[in-house]
Design goal:
The complex is a heterodimer of chains A (330) and B (134). With 330 residues, chain A is an alpha/beta fold. Chain A is 46% helix and 14% strand. Chain A is built from twelve helices and eight strands. Chain B is α/β, with parallel strands linked by helices and 134 residues long. Chain B contains five helices and five strands; from the N terminus they run βαβαβαβαβα. In chain B, helix 2 packs across helix 3. Classes of the chains: A alpha/beta (330), B alpha/beta (134). Chains A and B meet through helix 2, strand 3 and strand 4 of A and helix 1, strand 2 and helix 2 of B. Strand 3 of chain A pairs parallel with strand 2 of chain B.
Chain lengths: 330, 134
Amino acid sequence: MAKEKQPIAETVERLLTGNRRAAARLISMIEGNDKGVREAMKLIYPHSGQAVILGITGSGGAGKSSLTDQLIRIYRRHGKSVGVVVVDPSSPFSGGALLGDRIRLTRHSLDDGVYIRSLASRGHLGGLSRATADVIRVMEAMGKDLVIVETLGAGQDEIDVIHFVQTCLLVVTPGMGDDIQAMKAGIMEIADILVVNKADLDGATTCLRNLEAALNVKSFQKGEWVPKLIKTVAVASKEEELEGIEELVSAIGEHQAHLHDSRAIDQVRIERIEQELGLVFKEEVEKAVFQGLKGTGRKKGYINSILRGESDPYSVVNEVLNSYLQPSQS
Amino acid sequence: MMDEKRKIKILITKVGLDGHDRGAKVVATLLKEAGMEVIYLGMYQMPEGIVQVAADEDVDVIGLSYLSGEHLIFTPKIVELIKENDLDDVLLIAGGTFPPEDIPTLKDMGIDEVFRAGSLTQSIIQYIRDNVRE
């Protein structure tokens, strides 16, 4: 859009002063993958990278948003400013989404130290991961001390998001078979802290024991972080009836301290950049190649040749890439 | 999916002490089915919070759901806050159960369009698509 062309630098300037309207605008651009995103991110990037980034994942209804609500409450009490990205799935059929996590977070709406943004997964080209990565950068640039990323950890897709976070919480609940899910490959491995939420429900102890047993058979190297297990009750009518929240906050603090003491934080930061680089690279290359093919009729030709059984996707991609990589082309 | 039009983002919320959210939930679901991204804020929301969330989420539309007769009380405050926050390009619609004679009053107050209980869902969807900001 032409009217946005000029003020991008200005919007970023305002973002750097913590302005949430500027953040809102920039995040919409990221969501829509508008043309101005590249320019904006170039300006934002140098001002990001300093926040503590927490990931909260777990199946729907496990209590991720309620825990997020509690964590915001405690961190605000400690004087930390907080950014929250809540990711909910888009319908693969209608493309629409119902983003309902803010219901649990409404008491923070008017707190100037908290900025919350919902993100629909939209499901295009791994775009969610790239968009989430950029949104985290925006929140860092606006000066948030802590950024919480809440995702439905159901599909392999969301696990990507884990690469951007420093401390990852996996939330499970008793009686849902979540403890067995958590023991599956690729799920427990991502968790630095395992949270058994709704610990006032029947089966909480069994759930905890199963997870404990699963952790016990894993071998950890000396100095390696051993995931913590915490029982929580994140919703109660009175604050005194909550359980494990302070304990969870200390566990997060311990994991952060471990990252810094062991210098593992350097590796985490490297992985984050590596991941971002890969995502941007993939998207830009793909876009450039497809744009190059646009209007030439070559794409249609390739599809037809595959349809006739004369070629296959691998040969086509090879041919296209070669034409790009050969200097004679330009 | 890549070349689809820009997604319409809409905030659906109940206002004040009104505890009847069935209609709001139905509308939220229908708009989702129509391909929109709906942020559902739930019950007992006050004007300040509603407008702040609308600003933070950069929504295109705010949908207010009324049933218990508070529509004439809360609407002016919401409109005032929308102006204060420079959200004039956001479409403001109201729905629910209230006397038909209040519709002109609501529009005078600054509501762009009103859909009473019984409105056709297609008319809501079409109205939003036709009037949403570019």
